[in-house]
Design brief:
The structure is a single chain. The protein has 918 residues and is of the alpha/beta class. Helices cover 31% and strands 18% of the residues. The protein contains 31 helices and 34 strands. Strands 5-4-16-15-14-6-7 form a seven-stranded mixed beta sheet, sandwiched between helices. It has a six-stranded mixed barrel with strand order 21-25-22-24-23-26. A six-stranded antiparallel beta sheet has the order 28-29-27-32-31-30, sandwiched between helices. Strand 30 and strand 31 (786-793) form a beta hairpin. Helix 3 (117-131) packs across helix 21 and helix 8 (228-241) packs across helix 10 (257-267). It starts with 9 loop residues before the first strand and ends in a 5-residue tail after the last helix. It binds iron/sulfur cluster.
């Protein structure tokens, strides 16, 4: 495709966050002495095929996350700064000694879907080819390894058949186990646009929870947790019964159909039994089955809700079975489509950076592949069997079988199941190396050696998105301090271990060429992943590489949008395999002490463990505190109201979360986001509640169903603090912190009463310049348990505390604005302690649109006072939702709960027709 060249001051790169893989254009204005961090402006790349210029709220706020606070800028050994030479020698010597004593299986790498393909390639080659063990796994294990295994079982290769364009060409889209609106917002916006242009496009959401994605749904199936495979088995049986299969496709291009159908019929023989087992009424099931059977162009988009299960591979194959048996694959608008979580989960799969694959879509199980990779790498010590997958890897660390562990760019102390045990394993690990751009994380604090890695904006290489599209990530910032790219760090260690001739890389382009050559080495069309068309790129061509979907071969020199169009698969027979599926529901056992089923997931404006997105004031203005969604009846039974604190616990751990009461979750179910950790909250690592139960094939943990108990957190006081510098939270029972404009906000609660609030508060504030005058205003009502105070330093508002017996309201926009300003006239200061202006002013409320900072109260007030009736009108009046569109589902939800009577709505529509707003 034609793609405009980079402008002199503009860099085209790829978003740091999710697997949508949006293109960005970035321009940098040099920093100054007073502002050492360069000013970065970015916008969506209109020429990038993944996003066509769109960005979501996270992508739009990337420029706010580039500061050097908490950056790791120098190597450290034992907590002390060290030179690169010493750090590399220390790592190499310890690895060499441990390998000599205990063999190569005693060392392991745990890497990340945030690494670039070139980083991944070098790490994989070092571990499997030269250290000689299979022990390299990745946090992508937690995200999409079940989908990868399902692909291999069905297609003989880990291939995503379709592309984003298929979503626009489909007549029916099933979103299953995917809150696309929040987890992959730009893909969701593409579906929104397609549906606006073709209202006949039907969207079905299959999810136990009513998520933001339901905003678009023609049909929502709130199925019983874990019943996905049964639902798709029921669909397969129904397609057969109603003669909606594609017998010609089955005969020509598949194998295993009869067994798969028999298994489907055995577990879900008819609509009534399927509906009963899935906990959905029969009419709803019937609509889904009718639509699927009667529509040729169907895309089933699936994600973590399918993958993060003790039977995630079976669930993926149950979906794929339906597409294969009805011939809905390899055609425009028809595909099963696994969408990946991370920016480069797909790139990691390409290089083989997972413990159970070898390299470049070649497998341990195939002796010819082992021989091929051994010869290509000239690696006599090549590992000949799979290594440890993530969960078992950390169990091996805990048991001392893995003595040295190198963690690159990920935070397993937060993200793995049984996170408390993982933390313990890290504490006890004999030799822990962490390479990361972050200074302090829940994981890095246990490291013996810390290696400073390049961050997004400084990295140069490639990533592959969910539709197999390889895009360049280009550096637009200099490397700060002594930070270095991950590929460089692995290369240096490989050289220090004596493998220099195999690791003579000086640039990522050299690595990419080798990666592309390996993909095509003795390939002859036998493997799907083939980059032969890119294996001769010179430095200039690599630099100018435009987004392209693999395979890239002489047959497909411009890449390939869709796989399997010819009905040929990569199994020995060339046919796709249908897999007989016997559905298993959850392994989580609810019992009297643990009667709730906890579901986990992502929120709109945060990413992973918040190391990047938690830096942005704007992103934290949407949801600033870890929460648990609980059904109103369950909250009533517990005797708690909105914003109460709840303790959620089981045998594995305990967390304290803010209650969000909502009928979006069903009775007996809970939902909590995965993002918060010990750097941001006292106890909110959701992974600590998840059992280390995994899929037997993929090793992916079951994050979606954990049996837990819930009880009110017995606080005697609640409050919050705004401060210029971080406030000391030691010994506070509940706290959560985040950045605000001009400082930090801390939510607090405690179990023990405090008598001297002024003393308690002052002792926890950082010391101030004694030359500056300090003054206080205070209000105390001891009987009511209420204390409020503000401290001024040098005439400027420095800190504020609000304490009460009951939880404090979340809406405090006016107070935050005053704090950001800092200069408060003495006459206006008492109003601070009332948390509202002396003269009534509107409070914008909780931020809904982070792009234009539009709050809930502003929107609700405008809906009522101006009788606004569509999100388009709200956009015209308030600008909300008119930039990235991430908040559109919430705007629709606000509209529907604020719905004006139908006569008024008609009136609104009539009025606005004349102003082209409705
Ligand atoms: Fe980044 Fe958002 Fe695009 Fe994902 S959808 S790649 S987070 S801009």
């Amino acid at each position: 495709m034609n793609h405009p060249p980079d402008q002199p001051n503009r860099t085209r790169t790829t978003c740091a966050y999710c697997g949508v893989g949006c293109g960005l254009e970035v321009s940098v204005a040099a920093g100054s002495a007073g502002q050492p961090v360069p000013r970065v402006e970015l916008r969506g790349d209109a020429a990038h095929p993944a996003n066509h210029g769109r960005l979501c709220s996270k992508g739009s706020a990337l420029g706010e996350t580039l500061g050097l606070d908490n950056r790791l800028l120098h190597p450290q050994i034992g907590g002390l700064r060290a030179s690169w030479n010493l750090a590399i020698d220390t790592v190499a010597n310890r690895l060499r000694d441990i390998i000599a004593e205990s063999g190569p299986e005693a060392v392991a790498f745990y890497v990340s879907g945030q690494l670039l393909t070139e980083d991944y390639y070098v790490a994989n080659k070092l571990m499997k080819g030269f250290i000689g063990a299979g022990n390299i796994d990745t946090n992508s294990r937690l995200c999409m390894s079940s989908a990868a295994s399902a692909h291999k079982r069905a297609f003989g290769s880990d291939s995503v058949p379709g592309c984003y364009e298929d979503l626009e060409l489909a007549d029916l889209i099933l979103l299953t186990g995917s809150n696309t609106a929040w987890a992959h917002p730009v893909v969701y916006q593409r579906i929104v646009k397609a549906k606006a242009e073709r209202p006949q496009l039907k969207v079905v959401v299959i999810d136990p929870r009513r998520t933001a994605s339901c905003d678009l749904a023609d049909l929502h199936l709130p199925i019983a947790p874990g019943s996905d495979a049964l639902l798709f088995n029921g669909l397969l049986a129904d397609l057969a019964r109603r003669d909606r299969l594609d017998p010609a496709y089955i005969a020509a291009h598949t194998e295993g159909f009869e067994a798969a159908l028999a298994a489907a019929q055995a577990s879900a023989p008819d609509r009534a039994s399927t509906a009963a087992a899935c906990g959905v009424d029969e009419a709803t099931i019937a609509r889904l089955f009718d639509w699927f059977g009667d529509t040729t162009r169907v895309v089933t988009l699936f994600s973590q809700g399918i993958n993060q299960s003790s039977s995630g591979v079976d669930k993926g194959n149950a979906i794929i079975n339906c597409h294969l048996a009805s011939g809905k694959i390899g055609k425009p608008g028809a595909a099963p489509f696994s969408i990946t979580g991370q920016p480069n989960a797909m790139g990691g799969r390409e290089v083989g950076g997972m413990a159970n694959t070898l390299a470049a879509h070649m497998e341990y199980e195939n002796p010819a592949d082992l021989d091929r990779v051994r010869r290509f790498w000239d690696a006599p010590a090549l590992a000949h069997q799979p290594g440890l997958k993530a969960v078992e890897l950390f169990q091996a660390v805990a048991a001392g079988r893995v003595r040295a562990l190198w963690i690159a760019g990920t935070n397993p102390a937060v993200s793995l199941p049984e996170a408390n045990r993982v933390r313990q394993a890290l504490q006890n690990c004999e030799f822990l190396i962490v390479s990361d751009c972050e200074g302090r994380t829940d994981t890095s604090q246990h490291a013996h050696v810390l290696l400073p890695a390049a961050a997004w904006g400084e990295k140069d290489g490639t990533v592959t998105n969910s539709e197999r599209r390889i895009s360049r990530q280009r550096a637009f910032l200099p490397l700060p301090g002594e930070a270095r790219p991950d590929w460089w760090i692995f290369t240096q260690v490989a050289r220090a271990l004596g493998f220099g001739s195999a690791f003579d890389y000086d640039t990522p382009q050299q690595i990419f060429r080798e990666h592309a050559r390996l993909s095509s080495f003795e390939n002859d069309g036998q493997r799907d992943f083939d980059l032969s068309g890119l294996s001769m790129l010179d430095a200039a061509q690599y630099d100018a590489l435009q987004p392209i979907q693999w395979p890239v071969t002489p047959t497909h020199p411009d890449g390939c949008a869709r796989l399997f169009s010819d009905g040929r698969y990569y199994t020995p027979s060339g046919r796709a395999r249908l897999i007989p599926i016997t559905p298993h529901l959850s392994v989580a056992r609810l019992d009297a002490p643990h009667p709730f089923l906890l579901n986990t997931g992502r929120i709109r404006d945060q990413w992973h463990t918040m190391t990047r997105s938690g830096r942005s004031v704007r992103l934290l203005s949407h949801i600033a505190e870890p929460f648990v969604e609980i059904h109103p009846e369950d909250a009533k039974t517990l005797g708690v109201g909105e914003r109460a604190l709840l303790q959620v616990h089981n045998h594995h751990g305990s967390v304290t979360l803010r209650a969000q009461i909502s009928d979006a979750v069903q009775r007996g179910q809970l939902f909590a986001p995965i993002h918060w950790n010990d750097q941001f909250a006292s106890a909110a690592r959701i992974g600590s509640l998840v059992a280390a139960v995994t899929d037997p094939i993929s090793g992916q943990p079951e994050f979606k169903q954990s049996a837990v108990a819930v009880e009110p957190f017995a606080a005697t006081w609640h409050g919050f603090v705004l401060s210029r510098e971080p406030f000391t939270t030691d010994q506070i029972d509940y706290w959560c912190r985040g950045p605000i404009e001009g400082g930090h906000c801390h939510e607090l609660a405690g179990k023990q009463p405090i008598n001297d609030w002024r003393g308690w508060f002052t002792a926890r504030l950082p010391a101030t310049d004694p030359m500056l005058e300090s003054s206080w205003i205070e209000f105390q009502d001891a009987e009511a348990g209420r204390y409020r105070a503000a401290r001024f330093i040098g005439g400027r508002l420095d800190s504020l505390i609000f304490i009460d017996r009951t939880p404090q309201p979340a809406e405090r926009t006016w107070l935050l604005e005053r704090f950001a300003c800092g200069q408060i006239e003495p006459s206006a200061r008492p109003a601070l302690l009332a948390a509202r202006p002396a003269v009534a002013q509107p409070d914008a409320g909780r931020t809904i649109c982070v792009c234009f900072n539009v709050g809930l109260n502003t929107i609700e007030q405008a809906i009522h006072s101006q009788r606004l009736c569509t999100v388009e009108v709200i956009g015209n009046r308030l600008r909300a939702g008119t930039n990235c569109g991430s908040c559109l589902p919430e705007l629709r939800a606000i509209l529907s709960r604020s719905a004006t009577p139908s006569a008024a709505t008609q009136d609104c529509q009539a009025q606005n027709r004349h102003t082209d707003q409705c």
